[in-house]
Amino acid sequence: EKINLSSPHLVICPEPLMIDNENYKFVIPIHMISFSLVVDIDKRVNSFLDIKNSNIMIYPILGYSTILCTQVAKYYGAKKIVDFSFENWKNGYSILLLTNHTNTFINNLSQENRINILNWKDDSKLPEYNFPTLTNTTMNLNDYRLFDINKIKTGYGYKLCLFANESFPEEAIYTITKSLIERGSNIRLSSVGGSKYIPYHNGARKYFE
């Protein structure tokens, strides 16, 4: 069986980035990632609603956060959206990122700054119409030095998933899926389940059947 070498065989990324890519099929979810707004406690940013007319930085630069966090910042009407820099942090910008916790960058920032981490929970219901595949997540913030007694928060985010090029051999994906689920892989599987929008790769479907 020939393999298409023009594209990566395997891709790990948030689920929404693959909705319109017919060349890749779903294999397995790895873990949940949550939208997190890191704020200086003196800047009076108390929720995602306060993004409106605020200056927002996206972290990390050129990662999937650049696409997905920019969408959220625009949704709430941010005044300016730029890449992260410590200079802008000192000038009062907040940081929007999409991550699982504990995040090393946030942890280091929390040791040297007076910060809080806000969860996205301002909408009365899940705004999936604007953000396909958006789902409820839980953020465990106990490892950070925060000025907030609430260290377990619910919010919105996405599943970080493994996808495979549809040309990648079925037996290889079957073996990878089996190994991840049954052999105690270091990859933290969030749950065994498929995607509402993206069909299984034949190799993964074979395993689950």
Describe the structure.
This protein has 209 residues and is α+β, with helices and mostly antiparallel strands. Helix content is 22%, strand content 29%. It has helices spanning 64-75, 86-90, 104-112, 170-182, 202-208; strands spanning 10-14, 24-40, 55-58, 80-83, 94-99, 115-119, 135-140, 152-165. Strands 1, 2, 3, 4, 5, 6, 7 and 8 form an 8-stranded mixed beta sheet that branches. Strand 3 (55-58), helix 1 (64-75) and strand 4 form a beta-alpha-beta unit. Helix 4 (170-182) crosses helix 5 (202-208). The longest helix is centred in the last third of the chain and has 13 residues, at 170-182. It is elongated, with a radius of gyration of 19 Å. The model is unreliable at 1-5 (pLDDT under 50).
Tags for this model:
eight-stranded mixed sheet, disordered N terminus, 209 residues, 29% strand
Describe the secondary structure blueprint for this structure.
Blueprint: E1 10-14, E2 24-40, E3 55-58, H1 64-75, E4 80-83, H2 86-90, E5 94-99, H3 104-112, E6 115-119, E7 135-140, E8 152-165, H4 170-182, H5 202-208
Parallel strand pairs: 3-4, 3-5
Antiparallel strand pairs: 1-8, 2-5, 2-6, 2-8, 7-8
Helix pairs in contact: 4-5
